Predict the 3D structure of the following.
Amino acid sequence: MKRILAAALLILFMFTSALAEETIVFRLPSIPPGTPEYNPAEPEKLIPDQLIAKSAILLEADGGAVIFEKEPDVQMFPASTTKILTVLLTLQACDDLNEMVVFSNRAANPPAGSSTGRFKEGEEVPLIDVLYATMLVSANDGALALAEHVSGSVEAFVDYMNRAAAIFGCTGTHFSNPHGFHAFDHYTTARDLSTIARIAMENEEFKKIAGTTSWLLPKTNMQKARTLTSENWFIIPNASDEKGQLYFPAGTGIKTGWTNAAGRCFVGSASQDGVNLISVVLYSGDDNRYLDTIKMMNYGFSQYVSVTPAQLFSLSPLAIETTNFSMTDPGLGQLTLFLKPVEDVEHASVTINKNDLDAYARNFRRQCIITYTRDFSAPIAYGEEFGTLIYIPGEGTTIEYKMIASRSVEVRENAPKSIEQIEAEAYADPNPFPPLSIELVLTLAWPFIALIALIVVLRKLFKRRRMKLAKIPDPIRRRFK
């Protein structure tokens, strides 16, 4: 009896939610009167009122810095962008992406008006294919099947979603289903949704799914093979002329959403010249959700730059003062060093606001440990190694570089030889005996010369004393004479 009552209440709730959704009329937001017209040639001048969306945010994906925002903390309905968290949690919970998902009656019958993957009750589908269907065609039946597969029931999975959102740091979010179909207690904020999307894009499998526009769904126990095609115009390069203006070449994903209550929503991602961005647009228009996203993406790329540690070092290079340099040296012995990675570190980069680049470069060496392995004495050859620099980023592993001379420095004439030069010459000479020279003779003979001189001096002193004693009369003879 309790189960029947619970099922009845659930059906009533779904019916009232669907009815409420149907009674809500979507009204396209508009740009406030007097707002300066947006100029695509000057993306850096974007202001919040130039977006159609009611709420939006743009993040630098690697560090999480907020680049641009418009009412990002207002609670909004996320629609199918909810599926970002559903797919992420499924990927985190399941190791075998080829395990079979069986569609229950509930999963195969999502709320009326849902977007679906047309799955049937009892159909057995590999998990990976359900994930792609959930993202590409926004399959509500797929989202329900994933929830039951991971947690045993939709309700348990929704609880899992809310706990995960809290752990991620979301403070304005509450989910009541895994697919985003409208419910009054199903809401989030642009800031929270960007946090979820940023964490999701750190998962390589999710990232691959989010950037896919077409997927072949193989034959199942109940249906023939078919192709799933996304309508995420942001990442479809061969779109029709009508939608071609919405394609963004740097775009990499992620997910669309739509209900009357939520409006047109879009969570996007893009990468360009090493800069990775995450955007969220809530309650915008059909095409405007992409146009709003493109405006923010272009703004972000105009503000941020990705540089390697070696490039940062070159903006404020380490200069050393050499010794024994030739007086004709154009730099009067001053030598700058450049960095060469010890290993392949092409992936290592730092994303920085362009306005902060100079200051970051000046303070770069504070994040480094520098060790010299040779002295600063000329001669110095171009490319000669001077030591090592270990860069310690705020996050991630340390990176080791060699410090290399950027030019040659000639030695001055008649410069004294260093110990290393003397040793090198000695080891290079095949004659085991040093070459005969006045300096060598004097070096070897001076102890003998000193000994002979000492003997001569002592003999003279002894002779002089004997002569003196001979002149003194005998004291005994003087007394008794």
